[in-house]
Amino acid sequence: MTSEQSSIGIRIERGRKASGLSLRSLGEEVGISHTAVSKYEQGSVIPSSTMLIKLSRALGVRIEYFLRPETYELSNIQYRKRQGLTKAELSAIEFDVMDQIERQFELESLLPLPENKLGKWYSQPSKIANNYSGIEEIADEARSNWHLGSSAISNFVDIVKEKGIRIIFTKVEIPAKFDGLSAMIGETHLIVVAKNVTGDRQRFTIAHELGHLVLDKRISSELDIEKACNRFAGAFLLPRTSVIERLGRTRKDIDIAELSILKAEFGISMVGILYRALDLGIISRELHRRMMIDFRKNGWNKIEPGDQYPTETDYAFQQLIYRALSEEYIGPSKAAELLGVSIDEFNEIHDFTATCE
Predict the structure, then answer these.
(1) In this structure, are residues 160 and 206 in contact, taking their beta carbons and an 8 Å threshold?
(2) Domain coordinates of the chain in residue numbers?
(3) Do residues 85 and 177 touch, judged by C-beta distance below 8 A?
(4) Is 291 in contact with 254 (CB distance < 8 Å)?
(5) Which among 326, 31, 78, 305 is positioned nearest to 178, based on CA atoms?
(6) Is the backbone of residue 328 left (phi > 0), alpha (psi -120 to 50) or beta?
(7) Do the Cβ atoms of 211 and 236 come closer than 8 Å?
(8) Distance, CA of 232 to CA of 204 (rounded, Å)
(9) I want to staple 65 with a disulfide (CB 3.0 to 4.6 A). Which of 16, 61, 69, 261 is the partner?
(10) Which residues, in sequence order, are CB contacts of 136 under 8 Å at separation 6+?
(11) pLDDT (tens digit, 0 to 9) for every residue of the chain, 357 residues total?
């Protein structure tokens, strides 16, 4: 079996599973037997160019997808929220992630970029957190190491990526079931976030997954790791000093308008802010309970009142594509492929038609 055969076969299998198709179903779509599809996937037979076109249409991918030079594998996949997700939905998410990461790696291989030397994105363990309060100190230490101070983080995605952690926004439409996942590709850490959720939810997911990395071997085995990462996420996005500065040390009530202002400034949900106030002893458990009942009664636990926090965006990949195009490392067709659009869509976006004429 050649590497070319293996690569194409792996891609056919990935695409089929992401589409929720059986061997037989895909065979029927392209007019061959399920045995023939199996041989393609196993790499014992190479599909013709005509068959690749049929397969690309059946699987909803560009034909270039099958011809990419390398394949990568996700490892150590950890979902933050996966209740109710079917195997097909999980496969669709992982397929989309792999498609995006492969396009990123291919683009980076075409450009004369400096070697990616990962920054020291967390310090060596200085102590173990034996309780949830101790996680506050670890979050403060992480912000200090990253020179963030106690102010709001406006460019969260850029800051995390600067530390050598890749962030992917998955386009798979799965309502309310999926927040994000963390994984590895080789030695690179990867955080995947749902694209179709609010910006404050995206930021919390990124901070939560970051917590898994930072808290590794730094908390007592008696603590629940998911609760610990939630505590870290809240403390990293809205540090203790800022909470006390804005809300005071103790409160008998908190106005919704206050929560809305803090949400707009720090990019953390109103519910998240209430939990911060509870964790830090600013409000009582009874006040927190009453306010959460009001949130549920008004449907604010699903859609919070006021303006929604804008979604996070990663512009770096798009900018690299246009850089490669302007420096003639790639042409318009390759740029369209890397962006995941047709050449006509690319021409429309880039207004390339007049230039080509």
Answers:
(1) yes
(2) 1-71, 316-356
(3) yes
(4) yes
(5) 78
(6) left
(7) yes
(8) 10
(9) 61
(10) 231, 235, 240, 280
(11) 455 446 889 889 988 988 889 999 999 999 999 999 999 999 899 999 999 999 999 988 878 788 876 678 888 888 776 556 788 888 888 888 888 888 888 888 888 776 554 444 555 556 789 999 999 999 999 999 899 999 999 889 988 988 889 999 988 876 556 778 889 988 889 999 988 889 999 999 999 999 998 998 889 999 999 999 999 999 999 999 999 999 999 999 999 999 999 999 999 999 999 999 999 999 999 999 999 999 999 999 999 999 999 998 888 888 899 999 999 999 998 898 888 888 888 888 887 444 544
Instruction: Locate the DSSP E strands across 31-126.
Output: 75-79
Predicted TM-score (pTM) of the model is 0.81
Pairing of strands 75-79, 166-170: unpaired
Write the DSSP assignment of 191-233 as a string of letters: EEEESSS-HHHHHHHHHHHHHHHHTTTTB-TTS-HHHHHHHHH
**Which architecture characterizes domain 1-71 according to CATH?**
Orthogonal Bundle (1.10)
193: left (phi over 0), alpha (psi -120 to 50) or beta: beta
First and final C-alpha spacing in the chain: 44
And the tokens for 354? 């007049």
Written as six digits, the tokens of 246 are: 């804005």
Question: For residue 268, with 0-12 CB atoms within 10 Å meaning exposed, 13-18 middle and 19 or more buried, which class applies?
Answer: buried
Residue 285, token pair as written in the block: 């458990």
